[in-house]
Amino acid sequence: MYDYLGKLISIEKFFQEYEETVKNTWFGKGKLEKATDLHRFYCFTPKYCYYWQPLYDIISICDMFGIEDLDRNKKILQRDIEFLHNPNIINNLASFNSNFNGIKEVFIWSKEALKTTLSLLEGDEVIRLNEALNCYVNECNYSTIVMCVSAIEFRLLSLMMSKCPEPKLEKLTLGDLIREYLDNKEKYANVIPKKYQPLLDYCNTYRVLSVHPKKEEITRSNATSIIYMTFSFLLDEKLKSNVEEKKS
């Protein structure tokens, strides 16, 4: 399983390794500035794709994190990452640098915002979301929803326990947790903002459809909606502060 969230936090190191590998392997000292016919298609080799593929995946989901620079530049990033996989475009070092540096600059601008945003996640949430992202980029729609809902369940339980630490809550299913919260919102100090309450029901419905053998198809659109809403929910600073109040 690829650690997308971990890679985003250390994105500078990733870019450095990617750049050095390309230059030292195909355009380094003692090699030509322009690719010869012998290695013109280097961008299709496993060694190159080891870096290109995860960067392609990261760019495809970069607008999940609510980072302004990534949102605004996503189309440009998608264009440049496609260019980095086109042997007719990056057959010389200057062309590779031009497209590579454009991507690198956007992520470097965003690195502090990314670190701050991703620091809102708990360790168990990171594990679940990383698995959800792996499922999503591989178009495993059912599994994507299951892992997203698992992360939401973890946060919901934490929020409810922060206001009313009852052991019985840990034994409840997501559906039961949601009902317990909606029936007793004052007891839990209305810890879930009203805008997220429909999300809880929506996620529970699709969790049931994803894990039980019903004749309901889970589409790419369903998985996309769930994973984007999941990140919106878990990366909300107000929800994190509610948990931290209890810890302090």
Give short descriptive properties of this protein.
2 domains, mainly alpha, 11 helices, Four Helix Bundle (Hemerythrin (Met), subunit A)
Distance N terminus to C terminus? Answer: 34 Å
Structural class: mainly alpha
Question: How many E strands?
Answer: 0
Into which percent range does the helicity of residues fall?
Answer: 55-70%
| Gross CATH architecture of the largest domain | Up-down Bundle
- Low-confidence segments, ≥5 residues, pLDDT <50? none
Q: Give the SSE order as H and E letters.
A: HHHHHHHHHHH
Silhouette: elongated
Query: Which sheet architecture does the biggest sheet show?
Result: none
CATH class of the largest domain: Mainly Alpha
At CATH level 3, the topology of the largest domain is Four Helix Bundle (Hemerythrin (Met), subunit A)
Give the mean pLDDT.
Answer: 86
Rg is 22 Å
Q: What's the domain count?
A: 2
Explain what this protein looks like in three dimensions.
- This protein is mostly helical and 248 residues long.
- The protein has two domains: 4-118, no CATH class; 123-247, Four Helix Bundle (Hemerythrin (Met), subunit A) (Up-down Bundle).
- It has eleven helices and no strands.
- The chain has helices spanning 4-9, 11-26, 46-60, 68-83, 93-118, 123-137, 141-163, 174-183, 197-211, 220-234, 237-247.
- Helix 6 packs antiparallel against helix 10 (220-234) and helix 8 runs antiparallel to helix 9 (197-211).
- The chain starts with a helix and ends with a helix.
